[in-house]
Design brief:
Blueprint: H1 3-37, H2 43-70, E1 94-96, E2 102-104, H3 105-126, H4 133-155, H5 160-163, H6 172-190, H7 211-230, H8 239-271, H9 276-291, H10 299-322, H11 331-345, H12 355-383, H13 390-395, H14 397-402
Antiparallel strand pairs: 1-2
Length: 415
Amino acid sequence: MNELIEVKYALDTFYFLVTGALVLWMAAGFAMLESGLVRAKNTTEILTKNVVLFAIACTMYLLVGYHIMYSSDAGGFLPSLGFLIGAEHSVDDVVASGGDVYYSARSDFFFQVVFVATAMSIVSGAVAERMKLWAFLLFAVVMTGFIYPIQGYWKWGGGFLDAAGFQDFAGSGVVHLCGATAALAGVLLLGARKGKYGKNGAIYAIPGSNLPLATLGTFILWLGWLGFNGGSELKLSDIGEANAVAQVFVNTNAAACGGVIAALVLAKLWFRKADLTMALNGALAGLVAITAEPLAPSALGATLIGAVGGLLVVCAIVTIDKLRVDDPVGAISVHGVVGIWGLLAVPLSNSDASFGAQLLGIVTIFAWTFIASLIVWAIIKAVMGLRVTEEEEYEGVDLAECGMEAYPEFIGSKK
């Protein structure tokens, strides 16, 4: 390499690593958001899930997932099986990033591995407060090692969806729809929390324990999302790419703002109250909506895309609840319903995208993830069960699964 290429290589590699670290920080956001939206008696267990699922995701992606996703034939349907990134790449390998500019293969792996953990984090909140910890972790092994990488190969690994023209810049479908669909399959087999639904269609709210923590989690996710979308530009080392990254950052933030405003206004008109949880989910919905194409829209266009996501998430949360599908944190609505909207919105600003290709991607990701996840969840249910006992659910899964409470000072001493 000449000196200029070496500088670009170092800059793009560093940018990849820093934005990957921002996405890693989203794990903290999911942990705080979910622990704030569940009851105090279930906090330790959901924190445990978020820490351990991250470790499982990174390990499984290292062992098999990365190879499945990025070492298979272009335009294909069946991925190649293999092990370890090190089997193909030495430490000083480089991979093309367009033209004669390169970045480290290890930085690419690091950036991709934190996306896998994000998809699995989506599942965590939807099955909260009644699923066995070890059943969840066993599913995480299969999800992060096989289910996610296979559909990821179809788009980002150059498989048949990519060949068909399916557009998904940073993962409204590959990450968010995939995670939400896996969650939906689990929730349908798991059932609702005790006391959530009554006779004659009655729905009972089960408030979260810590809204300040949920709000902090939302802001952490908001920050991390700049790396999620910004890093997906892949490089920064020339004027055009630097301007593109700046546009992605502006649009990502604008969409989140549009989602908050739209969700809060709709909640006020519908429920007569300024519902904080809807505003928080509105922010996340805006972020999910713009993730499929954060570069092509104008800043105002991104705001409107996010605003539609904010409206959709409020309607989806209410509708899914009426269908008696119990999702404590609204993950299926935020990442699934709005993920679909984000994918469908791509052709509105990107002339290279078509609604036909977007629909093909949506149907493919949903069908594969739902069927594969349903089979895995069903096997786990048959072998070890998915749900804690009714008594354990009443007492809280913190004690049943982890043997400790997150807020022990709230409990009076036992005599």
